[in-house]
């Protein structure tokens, strides 16, 4: 049975797991990532954790999921906001050198999408688009079992897609960027503007909508339409067999998901209306998807 090492490296914690081709986690180690102590300390800590995994030398390869865009060809992060000093650091090369096995690095949303495409909700489909709707909005395009990362590591990143250029300027993203209009942060911002400090997070707005509050329902309706515009834009470029949707906002999917799909059908060409929408299936897509990276490269 072939096994792989998956590493979920974040600004707070790092997890290392031994995973089968079918996505079964056989062993796992978790520690603080020590991100503020610099790359050398983080890498040494991570490699110590690998050596704690039973039978790690028998694994076929290593995959690492990291926050931010990645040069997937050279295995380096292009931006490292949560991991100071890791910009252009040769993560993959160092792991290969120390463990004598192929190593790969990709964005954490991309590896989650890869997991869902290979062993999750999209298993067996040629083109799967994974979307995570949480604090922000992220995405991953998986074609024939491989993540499409693009020249700059930004392929699949959908947060900056403009859904309406007549909105207000919020931050560095485009005016009307979908993340600024339909993410958890966006719904919280809009909810606070209407209801004040009783809104702690997006879930409070969804609860008010479920209770029949017309203002909250209007926020949800706008969100559902904005997300549908985003999905229609993606569909007209990638035409996936399935959208797999994950992220914290899906805890309230009963409030908005059916509306998103209905709006989507009105925004795409008629033959595309049968595009599938499924909720993400895996509990640990990040670490499983990291372990899938060597598989996607033929190992």
From TrEMBL:
It comes from the Bacteria. Pfam families: ROK. Belongs to the ROK (NagC/XylR) family. This is ROK family protein. It comes from Holdemania filiformis.
